[in-house]
Fold this protein.
Amino acid sequence: MAAAGHQAEAARKTAMKENKGKYILVVEGAIPTGEHGVYCKIGGQTAIEMLKECAADAAAVIAIGSCASWGGMPSTAPNPTGASPVAEILGKPVVTIPGCPPNPYNFLTTVVHYLTLGKLPELDAKGRPKFAYGRLIHENCERRAHFDAGRFATQFGDDGHRQGWCPYKLGCKGPETYANCPTILFGDAGAGTWPVGCGHPCIGCTEQGVGFTKPIHELAKLLTVTPPTQFARPAEPQGKGVTVASAAAIAALGGLAIGAGTKIVKGLGKLPDDERDDGKP
């Protein structure tokens, strides 16, 4: 076993040397930095050492998944292993493909873009390709119309939830999460193959400070659209028409109004007796 490990390590180093500046390094998983990296060692090397060695001569470095991109779930408090993102270890920007799991098409498109054009796609401030992470999930969600109309599911399994209404009040993080989930879907399994399409709120797995940080039930921060305060209730009661009692009340009010109006009309143009000077009645 040890001999096989040494042979594999030697082959890896030879391949990197022969392809210096020509290979793409893809890193999956957060890098443990606690206790000088003792929480992850392979062949006597820590993950920190292996990452730096492999990245030294790479043409590009891609961090795939939320853990490699920004620490993901392992980096949540109290983070005893010191789990850290790839870019933080290397001290330079890297391409990040966040998601838990990451969408394979976002990764493949990034690699093909580099192989075809000889350069990486345009990235945002967090290293994410803009073609995939340039718009909020909320903007392209198939349930956006329900949000705009004020139709929200308020409990799992209620009438609104069963009818496919917006899960914003169930804690959906789509309004503060950048990703292309609603348009690209996941897994070639047909329509609705993403969390909100399946009836579950987005947990914000592609967004640092949202996924694995905010509780699922916590309302999202609305980055672009704030619901009007006069939104309709999630389920407005159906009207039942005018009842006999309400009709009688309306008629009575109408009668009073007509009577008052008649009295006012009759008094129009008439002056009090003490103001008359023409002697007419």
